């Protein structure tokens, strides 16, 4: 059974960088078939894909966030992380990490989500 758990600060000030980590158990993040995604849901809105890192370490990002976000991994600890710079209150959301078989946008395992609020 694959399990994912997000961790990071719940409150970030505007213009700062948001950093979140996802710890994966029950499966390796280096397995080639799987893509490891970050997804968020702003209050009152739908899910928004942020980006992913593949089993081989390649990355892809949502075009509107490209330049502000980066996703990396720590294979020794089976973790992957995202950083979102220059945050504004519009970045307030519940942030999820998830596993996406094949990279087709259909995640099969999700973390429970973590609330991040951007406020001074």
Polypeptide structure, described:
The protein is an all-beta fold. It is built from no helices and eleven strands. It has strands spanning 3-7, 11-12, 18-25, 34-41, 48-54, 59-61, 69-74, 79-84, 93-101, 109-110, 114-118. Strands 2, 4, 5, 6, 9, 10 and 11 form a seven-stranded mixed beta sheet that branches. Strands 1-3-8-7 form a four-stranded antiparallel beta sheet, with no helix packed on it. It is globular, with a radius of gyration of 13 Å.
Q: Main beta sheet: strand number and arrangement?
A: 7 strands, mixed
SSE ordering: EEEEEEEEEEE
**Class by SSE composition:** mainly beta
Helix amount: under 10%
- Return the average pLDDT rounded to an integer: 96
Give the terminus-to-terminus CA distance. 39 Å
Beta strands, count = 11
Shape from CA axes? globular
Mind telling me the C-alpha Rg? 13 Å
The number of helical runs is 0
Work out the strand percent: over 45%
**Uncertain regions spanning at least 5 consecutive residues:** none
Write a compact overview of the structure shown.
By secondary structure, the chain is mostly beta strands. It has strands at residues 3-7, 11-12, 18-25, 34-41, 48-54, 59-61, 69-74, 79-84, 93-101, 109-110, 114-118. Helices cover 0% and strands 51% of the residues.
List keywords for this structure.
mainly beta, globular, four-stranded antiparallel sheet, 120 residues
């Amino acid at each position: 059974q694959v399990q994912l758990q997000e961790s990071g600060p719940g409150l970030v000030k505007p213009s700062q960088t948001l950093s979140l980590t996802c710890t994966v158990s029950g499966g390796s993040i280096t397995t080639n078939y799987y893509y490891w995604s970050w997804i968020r849901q702003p209050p009152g809105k739908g899910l928004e894909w942020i980006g992913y890192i593949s089993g081989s370490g390649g990355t892809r990002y949502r075009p509107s966030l490209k330049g502000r976000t980066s996703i990396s991994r720590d294979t020794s600890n089976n973790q992957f992380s995202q950083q979102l710079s220059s945050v504004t209150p519009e970045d307030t959301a519940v942030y999820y990490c998830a596993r996406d078989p094949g990279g087709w946008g259909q995640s099969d395992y999700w973390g429970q989500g973590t609330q991040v609020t951007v406020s001074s």
